[in-house]
Amino acid sequence: MPTNHFSGRNLSTRLGLLLAAVNTATILAHAQPTNSIPTEPANPIPTLQIKADQVTAKVSPTLYGLMTEEINYSYEGGLYGELVRNRSFKANAASAAFWNVVGNGVISLDTNQPLNSALNVSLKLDTGNASKNSAVGIANGGYWGIPVRPNTTYHASFYAKGKHFNGPLTVAIKSTNGETVYASAEVPKISGKWQKYGVTLTTGNAAPSQDNQLVISATKPGTLFNKHGEVWFQQVSLFPPTFNNRANGNRPDLMQLLADMQPAFLRFPGGNYLEGDNLKERFDWKKTVGPLEQRPGHRSPWGYWSTDGFGLPEFLGWCEDLNMEPVLAVFAGYTLKHDYVKPGPDLAPYVQDALDEIEYVTGDTNTTWGAQRARDGHPAPFKLRYVEIGNEDWFDESGSYDGRFSQFYDAIKAKYPQLQCISTVGNEQPEKKRVHSRKPDLLDEHYYRSVKDFERESPTQFEKYDRNGPKIFVGEWAAYEDIQPWNKKSEKLAPTPSFKAALGDAAWMTALERNSDLIVMQCYAPLLVNVNPGGRQWRPDLIGYDALNSFGSPSYYAQKMFSNHHGDQILATDSRDIPTNPKLFFDATRDSRTGKIILKLVNSLGTPQPVKVEISGVAAVEAEGEAVVLKADRPDDTNSIQEPDKIVPVTEKVDRLGTDFTREFPPYSITILELKAK
Ligand code: AHR
Known about the structure:
The protein has 12 helices and 32 strands. By secondary structure, the chain is an alpha/beta fold. Strands 30-29-32-27-26-25-1-28-31 form a 9-stranded mixed sheet, with helices on one face. An 8-stranded parallel sheet has the order 2-13-16-17-18-19-20-21. Helix 7 (about 350-360) crosses helix 9. Residues about 1-35 have low confidence and may be disordered.
């Protein structure tokens, strides 16, 4: 985990944000938010008014999306189907990290037998001690285990080359203690030249487990005096079935959780992962395309190795599988540890890289990079509307962003005038950082805030924005309960948030949705976390998993509910009384095709809250409707690997609705009420 990330650059800026929040709080203490309801015990029942004949704006059809990067073992050890950890032996130059030797074999890293210039190291196994009853070999325990499921076919593959060794090799999935063999296959012959080998491994009726390993072993010592032999390995891979059976594809359970959110877009590849700690470790997209064995891999700023098996083509394939629009972030010459490239001639190659990247995504097959995409298996261009220039460039103290943004903007608009350019410096930043010589089409704003801050800011945060200014992309946000994500103390908490955070998220989402004429896209971050010790670098995270299981946090379900029920028209709303302690949050939208009015109401109080709802501007509302409710007994309750479904939405039929009704909303609850209006 890059501790300096938490304590260094983020801390100072976030202290600034904190101060800003404190100031905002002071102002709000005197404000009269219109979208929260009074909760003073002495007050009459809070009254919420929906003015169905006043459509204030359209709900942005791209409002709900996903943000992702290689953090928390999101792809490697997460979404990416690969089960072998450190398959190319480059995670650590000094030793074969995550690899074990089997029996009396001897293993070592060898830079003298590279597969090629990208995978320029290999794992050597000395087979000299092998015998019929005592195998030698190499073993990999995956990312905190290798998942075994019953009656499942896995594909194992590897490059190998022998010297005085010509096989056979046995490839097996075994329990870590070696006692149970779940599946096994033989590669009969190994050549003296690098060659790729593959086998399929099918498990029987085994119970699901993850305390397992992949083992490749030999029982013959070698051909030199029948004693000595050596075999080198590279790119040792094991894939389970993937979502849509995509080759080099993704883990089905995680993909299903994401599909269920119905996301409209995917912001990738970062986040800090786009930037890298330094220029060499940026997301250099050209090294993430083409055959897997030609991708050298690189270190992620989150402290671990990425093989780049999950590269640009895989991001795009992911978009295709979930019908998401790509929001492509291009490296813009600034890194996490403050390296930057001066605007002008120095920056020109990076600008060209971005143009090439756009060509890879959108170009015809008769263009250089469109042709590469076709060779990578996707002749059809992808639809692209948004290009984000950098990530969090407000951290850049050199003042170079305006120049860098302008240079990218001019080049992109000249070649692709239809594309919209997103600046990473938003309204939340101090004025001196908000210098834009070119007017960005959108501003990417990030909000990692406490529940309290979100509750306080939700009613008014975006009401104050200039509607003639650039549109807003809330490209990263999450509510944390009390401890900031960049505070070391957060490492002691569960990686996924509690219901308390989900309440803060939902309050915030009522604001995002109500203002979605301005906020055209938003996405929670980070999306994924491997919950094993050492798996997480940031919390809170939306979806947790280990090698075998996965679960959505309460925040995940809040997201899913909002995304699945949003209609296309924002309706004017009001509350009758002046709130002094807003703990109820709401917004109302309509699906213009069905006429359904969708009321979202968040009750953060620990007591049931009766609310009077008055709907004007419609002839009638049917007595029967539907409610989707997410609630918890205690705000600290949450989901986990052990209790994945402790807090999940429940859909129920509701009656006694109308244009004027009172309903009691449960303590600690998020409710979506669908009203059939005529
Ligand atoms: O979401 C975690 C990190 O927070 C992102 O990588 C970065 O953009 C932000 O600082």
